[in-house]
């Protein structure tokens, strides 16, 4: 990953993370986006790793991070 948001996408797949860790990654993503991070490269990276994004992905701490970045990508 060559951007902070791509690193967030990369890290959320770590099987050693628990739900609280994933919630912290969501907060990190929100802060990065708030301060101008471009969500488009992270979305491309996410879809390469996890498949096509859909708003219908089951809601859980993992998908909450992805949803946060995807919603910012639409703006």
Folded structure, characterized:
This protein is mostly helical. Helices cover 65% and strands 0% of the residues. It has four helices and no strands. The protein is globular, with a radius of gyration of 11 Å. The N and C termini lie far apart (23 Å).
Radius of gyration: 11 Å
Distance between the termini: 23 Å
Q: What general form does the structure show?
A: globular
What's the β-strand tally?
0
Low-pLDDT regions:
none
Question: Count the helices. How many?
Answer: 4
- The helix-and-strand class reads mainly alpha
The major pleated sheet works out as: none
User: What is the average per-residue confidence, as pLDDT, rounded to a whole number?
Assistant: 95
Beta strand %: under 5%
Topology as a string of helices (H) and strands (E): HHHH
DSSP helix fraction: 55-70%
Assembly context of the chains: single chain
What's the SSE blueprint?
Elements: H1 4-11, H2 19-34, H3 39-50, H4 61-73
Helix pairs in contact: 1-2, 1-3, 2-4, 3-4
List the keywords.
about 80 residues, mainly alpha
Task: Give a brief rundown of this model.
The chain has 75 residues and is mainly alpha-helical.
């Amino acid at each position: 990953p060559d951007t902070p948001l791509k690193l967030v996408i990369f890290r959320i797949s770590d099987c050693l993370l628990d739900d609280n860790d994933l919630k912290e990654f969501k907060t990190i993503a929100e802060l990065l986006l708030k301060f101008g991070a471009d969500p488009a490269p992270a979305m491309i990276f996410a879809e390469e790793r996890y498949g096509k994004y859909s708003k219908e992905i089951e809601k859980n701490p993992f998908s909450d991070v992805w949803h946060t970045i995807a919603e910012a990508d639409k703006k």
